[in-house]
Design brief:
There is one protein chain. The chain has helices at about 1-40, 45-65, 75-80, 85-115, 125-155. It is mostly helical and about 170 residues long. Helix 1 (about 1-40) packs antiparallel against helix 2 and helix 4 runs antiparallel to helix 5.
Length: about 170
């Protein structure tokens, strides 16, 4: 019970960080418009900040905030089969994701650490700091899918009721 409370608290803080990144990106974008079109003084750092926040926002959100049922997937085949085959598909698919991300992780870390030799044009942020979020994302994906494989080995994933799915519109 206590572990669930800690997990909920961590999830809420991850959402807070995501909201902060969105706010920084938004205000950077607004500053870019004001400086360029109202003050006739284009500045480059706002564009760079917006792109950096977008990169971090997407990968942070995918790693820590997006839930499994919110992920985009093609599940027509998955939902049309029985529980045993759904379990097998979840285990095989999850093992493939874990294997591929684990296999690519050393090369990813090497590349990210190599990028310390370069900095962004305006903000002078080293690229290894900038791209470090991808390593965090990859480790989070490995952990998430290892958990999903372990859970699928214990019981078949639930069949999703298509009448409850929505396009969000």
């Amino acid at each position: 019970m206590r572990l669930t409370g800690i997990a909920r608290w961590l999830y809420a803080r991850a959402e807070n960080i995501l909201a902060l990144m969105l706010a920084v990106m938004f205000f950077g974008f607004v500053a870019q418009i004001v400086f360029r079109y109202f003050l006739n003084f284009p500045i480059g750092w706002t564009s760079e900040l917006t792109v950096i926040m977008w990169l971090w926002l997407v990968l942070w959100g995918a790693a820590f905030v997006a839930r499994e049922d919110e992920e985009i997937r093609f599940d027509l085949l998955f939902d049309s089969v029985g529980p045993a085959l759904r379990r097998l598909m979840a285990v095989v698919g999850g093992l493939a994701v874990v294997g591929l991300y684990t296999f690519s992780l050393p090369a990813t870390v090497d590349y990210v650490t190599f990028m310390k030799v370069q900095e962004t044009a305006y903000l002078d942020i080293r690229y290894d700091y900038l791209f470090s979020i991808y390593v965090v994302f990859a480790v989070a994906v490995i952990c998430r899918y290892a958990w999903l494989v372990w859970r699928a080995m214990r019981r078949a994933p639930k069949q999703i009721d298509p009448t409850h799915k929505s396009s969000g519109l």
